[in-house]
Amino acid sequence: MVQEMFSLQGRGALVIGAAGPIGRAVAVALAEAGANVAVATTTRSQREEVVANSCANEIWALNRRGFAQAIDAASESDVEALMQRTLSELGRLDVLVNAPDLPFAKPLTEITAAEWQRVIDVNLTGVYLACRAAAQPMLSQRSGRIINVVSVLGERGMINGAAYCAAQAGVLNLTRALALEWARSGIRVNALGAGWTEGAGLLGQEDARQQLERYLPPRRLAQPEEIAGAAVYVASDAADYLTGQVIWIDGGSLSRA
Amino acid sequence: MAVLEKLNLDAKVAIVTGAGRGLGRAMTLALAEAGADLVVAARTRSQIEETAGMVRARGRRCLTVPTDITDSRSAQAMVDTAIAEYGRIDILVNNAGGYTPGTGNPLEEITDEQWLVGIDTNLSGTFYCCRAAIPHMLRQGGGKIVNVTSGLGLRTVRNNFIYTSAKAGLIHFTRALATTYARDNIQCNLISPGLFPHQDPATTDQSQAGRFVPTGRPGRDEEIGPLCVFLASELTSYMNGQIVALDGGGLAGGQAPTGFAPVVPLATDALKGEA
What we know:
The structure holds two protein chains of two kinds.
Chain A: E1 12-16, H1 21-32, E2 36-40, H2 46-61, E3 66-69, H3 76-90, E4 95-98, H4 113-141, E5 144-151, H5 162-181, E6 187-194, H6 206-215, H7 224-235, E7 246-249
Parallel strand pairs in A: 1-2, 1-4, 2-3, 4-5, 5-6, 6-7
Chain B: E1 13-17, H1 22-33, E2 37-42, H2 45-57, E3 62-66, H3 72-86, E4 91-94, H4 112-140, E5 143-148, H5 151-154, H6 162-181, E6 186-193, H7 206-209, H8 225-232, E7 243-246
Parallel strand pairs in B: 1-2, 1-4, 2-3, 4-5, 5-6, 6-7
Helix pairs in contact in B: 1-2, 1-8, 3-4, 4-6
């Protein structure tokens, strides 16, 4: 049965950035598909920790194992420790989802070097750190799925988006490069390209959101669950031959002039 | 050779289709200024005669060949006439194209004929011209093809089926040409113009026309000239199968309304790793 190929029963998954709307929806979707799921924050903020804990609660409510951990996604030691805990509590790592998301938008001349560095560190370097940490278990078991969540702003520019857009574009091509590097090691590396999504940090004020809703082809934002469905496909045996790809879930906005 | 000298098109022969007005005329005049002798083709004789006068005023030879590129015999005759006059073709600019009847129609109202006319005008016509000209370029040991697509060949809008499909096809046709003839020293590239209003400037509100362009204004016809010369010159001897969008930034965005400029500072506890 083709549907059975989508099952993640017994798999171990780690979702970084699970306090964001997409990361959280992906974590829950993976759990619904059968995986045990560890979740981590993007930064060590209290707000994020609260959301990550409630995400872990949802995972437990689905009778899966998992835990929530507050980390700074740009911290090498945090990411290494998170990986060790994941391996010891879940017993294995089959799926790594990188969805760290530090929203930021400012005119270039007003961006400080520290802000720029921080946006790159969390949104791009954090993905590198997590991929590197996942290499050991995934290479030794000769299987694994890495799913990087990127924004359409990695493919297109936006006023005040220089730092964020640059970081997202970096993740896109990190995905393609790593897919090739590990193609013969059984590890699949893909990206989910998310359009403007409900609850995303970059949405800003309510009027900006309404402006976007009128602008987008479906005349509405994406629901986080609409991004998460594709994560189940990409994480599963159904996507065994898929690597180095970006699946855009953008309501058609990249197709339109 | 100094780099700017590579832009010199002295002794080159260029054909431009759709050369009677607008972007085609602008590219024609820029090629003439760079030194090329011209063949100007379009359906309307009076328009290409006017363009030819402007070429000759720049000291270059110019041949006018009334042509309907959607008729393969007419396209072949255009090339034959050029060869008879000049003995060579170095540059072919396939600019002819545009909206045809039915372009904006809802899908179910597009007739078979409207569809075919649109595809002929924006895709097949360029195929006919390339098929006729490339043997001469091969014989000469090289050549340059510049095809004109549109932002609508890369992305699209509602209720545009004919034009957007043909222009997208043109992009891949050009890539196939580029791939096929790369070893024969023929470079094939594309210009993708953004918004270039061709209406009478006196009656067109230019500020309104540019509202959705990031630079805030539509393009001016003469701005396409230098790009065409660049793609027709020795400067692009290794550039092949590429698209240059001359669109005031139109294709760089497209994920938020024009001018959308959010300001989202870093959360105070997000700048440092530790809360």
